[in-house]
Specification:
With 182 residues, this protein is an alpha/beta fold. The chain has a single domain (4-181), classed as Alpha-Beta Complex (Maf protein). It has five helices and seven strands. Strands 1, 2, 3, 4, 5, 6 and 7 form a seven-stranded mixed beta sheet that branches. 36% of the residues are buried.
Length: 182
């Protein structure tokens, strides 16, 4: 397949390969992350930058986690919120309102040098009272709707059942990537 998946996160690359079931080259390239609450704007910038580096079709992703009572925050800025206040701090900030509902979002972007295509997914859930489980990012604080566990507490089967990637965006992405490689 003539597509390169660009991510600096090896765990994302392994998850992608395992659950998408396609052989796609991976390159670890750190890309600039512009600050925006719009995942399409962020992914568009990253995918164009990645293409300019590898000069072949590329795929990138970005995620966000919004606490619904906060509007669009932290959204794609969740990484910086976690660096500043940690998972426990985000849980305490969620205490401000009774509504702990949250929405996890993901956008993959594909760019072949001519056109950017977006593949989006969202998953409803809630913010845990405190971080649970050992994992990275916001996995210890997000409980997907229909589960009583955070992502960080789940085993592989549960992860696949409730995954933002496998349940919302991988099916559409797999169809697209298979169609362009035929």
């Amino acid at each position: 397949m003539n597509v390169v998946f660009i991510t600096g996160n090896q765990d994302k690359a392994e998850f992608f390969k395992k659950y998408l079931g396609l052989e796609i080259e991976h390159k670890k390239i750190e890309l600039d992350e512009i600050q925006s609450l719009d995942l399409h704007e962020i992914v568009d910038h990253k995918v164009r930058q990645a293409y300019s580096i590898v000069n072949k079709p590329v795929l990138v992703e970005d995620v966000g986690l919004q606490i619904n009572s906060w509007g669009k925050l932290p959204g794609p800025l969740v990484k910086w919120f976690l660096q500043e206040v940690g998972g426990e701090g985000l849980c305490r900030l969620a205490d401000i309102n009774e509504d702990r509902s949250a929405t996890a979002s993901i956008t993959y972007g594909y760019f072949d040098g001519h056109e950017v295509k977006f593949f989006d997914g969202e998953l409803a859930g809630s913010i845990a009272a405190s971080p649970r489980g050992e994992n990275f990012g916001w996995n210890p604080i997000f409980i997907p709707e229909g589960s009583d566990k955070t992502y960080a507490e789940m085993d592989d089967a549960e992860t696949q059942q409730f995954s933002l990637r496998t349940t919302t965006v991988f099916p559409q992405l797999k169809v697209f990537l298979t169609s362009i490689s035929a």
